[in-house]
Amino acid sequence: MGREGKRIARQGWSHITPRIGVSELTVYELLGYLLPGAALLCWTLLVPWQALTQAAGVWIHSPLFWPCLTVLAYVAGHFVQAVANFLPTSSKHTTMADARLGRGTVACIESSLAEATEAKGIDETDAFDFCDAHVGRCGCFPERDLLTYREGFYRGMTTVSAVVLLQGWVAYLLGNRMVLNGVELGLGHSALVWALLVVFGLAFLRRYLRFRRYRIRGVLISFWECSVAGRADAGSKTQGNQAGQRRGETEAT
Fold it and tell me: For residues 231 and 235, what is the distance between their CA atoms, to the nearest angstrom?
């Protein structure tokens, strides 16, 4: 693409940015950062690392314990999402291939893109960003934010499951056994916990991929539908103007 297409894509994002309000950021931060961070932090404090558990027991009666724990969970959530960037599906650019649309549908969307960019051309790596900016600006895909929140949550929990599993292995090799009701768990019980973590991780991964695909498909199809509706409205206005002109000419004669 040329520079013009990139300029159009950047302009689209600049228009969508002001739409993100404080309440929307709060919901995303709760589901995308705070909850996954809290899950990671609770495991770290309560299960394999006894020294941290003892320290938490000392400070739990302090009035600063829960505020500090909330802040730590929020920071841990950012760490979780940073690690999640290494997921194969967390590439920087999203393309139409990620939506798994049919060839005919892709051709229609590409035609709408060409018309929207005045046939200037746009890179495949920037095409989705342009569609997403357009959909966010016109509000024709109201479920977009909800799907984004859920995608962020399941993405974070997938990463938490992997980090916790790795953490459990390291703790076990270092001699820090998991303790349940004062009883130290042996290898068999620890392996059962690890197996459950694998199951949870795969389940979260499946949900993450599903909501990611829902969001991408919804953005692209909504962009196409919005473009078609815009052309239809423009055609109706043109026909109305032409009819008005003919009536004016008839009255003049």
Answer: 6
